[in-house]
Amino acid sequence: MRTEPTSVPPLEVRTYRTIEELHALQPAWEDLLAAYPAATTFSTPDWLIPWWRSFGKAQQLMVAGFYDSASRLCALAPLAVTSLRIAKTVPLRVLRFMGDGSKDSDNLDLPVRAGFEEAFAAALLALLESRRGLWDLCELSTLPPHSPGAKTLHQLLQKKTWATNSRQQPASAIPLPATWEEYLAQLSGEDQKNLTRYSKRLERHYSVHIYRCEQESQLRRCLESLFELHQARWNSAGEPGSFGSRDRRDFYYELSCSLLRRNSLDLWVLELNGAVAAVQFGFRYGNRLFQLQEGNNPQHAPDRVGFVLRGHVIRELIAQGVRTYDFLGGESGYKARWGAKGGYYINLRFARPFTLGAAYLQSSLQARAAKDWLRRILPQPVWRNLHNLNVSLHRASGKSSRDRAGSPSTLVGKAKDNAE
Questions:
Q1: Which of 145, 187, 261, 393 shows its CA 20 to 30 Å from the CA of 1?
Q2: Which residues, listed in sequence order, are joined to residue 137 by a DSSP beta bridge?
Q3: Is the Cβ–Cβ distance between 183 and 340 less than 8 Å?
Q4: Which of 10, 50, 88 is nearest to 410 (CA)?
Q5: Do domains 12-171+344-353 and 177-322 have the same CATH topology?
Q6: Which residues have a Cβ under 8 Å from the Cβ of 373 and sit 6 or more positions away?
């Protein structure tokens, strides 16, 4: 395979197939992330190794490290292979991010040192070409839109004859100003008043305690409260809920222990008369807070406990110098009332030409085009009825109604339960 011209010598590629090997790689991995401005928690060993222990049982690791002539880790492609079936009978081997498949991860990335992007992209495609017997379709989901490694990889793919497609997936985040007063000025007059009104109302009727989990002795109670309150909401709606899964609960506990040791866990709790009424689970990387899950006691819905807790957390974050409150994936919706701005992730899919993966990719693109066409021409009530029927059929066949659009994967949905 001819290598594209690069400004640096070709990189040495080493592959890792066990968790033990990844533990040994961890110091070099963390050094790479420290030099990568776009790094987030989702690319760290703290996230990916616990995730693999909980959700990687049916997958095969294919993590690739890219080294310069001084044996310095210059880029990392944390990948894994999943075996799926299309049309119930045809096997399809999907190469995707380690961390993808459970709907817990966003912002998955290909961290690379500045100046090595072209060499990395060329070496990655050469590796995939040499391992063609291991995969059919590569599906890199929730890439940050300004990922230099992903951008260079996409450009190189476009120069080749490989089947390629990229789509945007909505996300949103609040850019936080330097002061609470500046932030309040961005909200509607009604929400400004409600933050004060409902906080004072709680204090009149209850003994209120709001705190961030900072001790390991607090962790289990805080997490169990999150699981219970989150499940209560979804179960009441007839849904299984994210934390009905033992694997997911184990993942959150191991992840939280790692983040707590680094003082980067943002697990916030609101108690009323000593009983937990609301919990919000997030974590920070640098000056960015990622809000992932939450749960509110439905009996305190009139008290708007989730609304009060979020306002308190945002105020604390601003005072601590956090500059982004990231809601992660999903439509802006109600989040816009908190000042969230719409953003997006990139989902990049590609396959070698004239292969099963290329044929699947082309057929899925045609199916999506047909769906988009129907959505444009049909009246909204008719489209909603068709959509609801499709959801019912998928549930009846054991598929999740929260699968990523256009993904061949059958996934357990991530419910970012943001009721306020």
A1: 145
A2: 94
A3: no
A4: 88
A5: yes
A6: none
Pairing of strands 324-329, 288-296: parallel
Neighbours of 116 (CB within 10 A): 22
Instruction: Evaluate whether 268 touches 219 at the Cβ level (below 8 Å).
Output: no
Contact 81, 136 (CB under 8 A): no
Residues 6+ apart with CB under 8 A from 401: 391, 394, 395, 413
CATH code matching the domain that covers 12-171+344-353, chosen among 3.40.630.30, 3.40.50.920, 3.40.50.300, 3.30.43.10 = 3.40.630.30
For 305-355, where are the alpha helices, taking DSSP H only? Answer: 305-319
Pick 177-322's CATH classification: 3.30.565.10, 3.40.630.30, 1.10.3720.10, 3.40.50.2000: 3.40.630.30
Residue pLDDT tens, the chain, 420 long: 344 444 678 999 999 999 999 999 999 999 999 999 999 999 999 999 999 999 999 999 999 999 999 999 999 999 999 999 887 888 999 999 999 999 999 999 999 999 999 999 999 999 999 999 999 999 999 999 999 999 999 999 999 989 999 999 999 999 999 999 999 999 999 999 999 999 999 999 999 999 999 999 999 999 999 999 999 888 877 788 889 999 999 999 999 999 999 999 999 999 999 999 999 999 999 999 999 999 999 999 999 999 999 999 999 999 999 999 999 998 878 899 999 999 999 999 999 999 999 999 988 876 666 566 556 666 777 557 666 666 665 555 444 333 333 334 333 334 454 456
Would you list the DSSP string of 105-166? --S----B-TT-HHHHHHHHHHHHHHTGGG-SEEEEEEE-TT-HHHHHHHHHHHHSSSEEEE
**120 Cα distance to chain centroid:** 24
Domain parsing of the chain, residue ranges? 12-171+344-353, 177-322
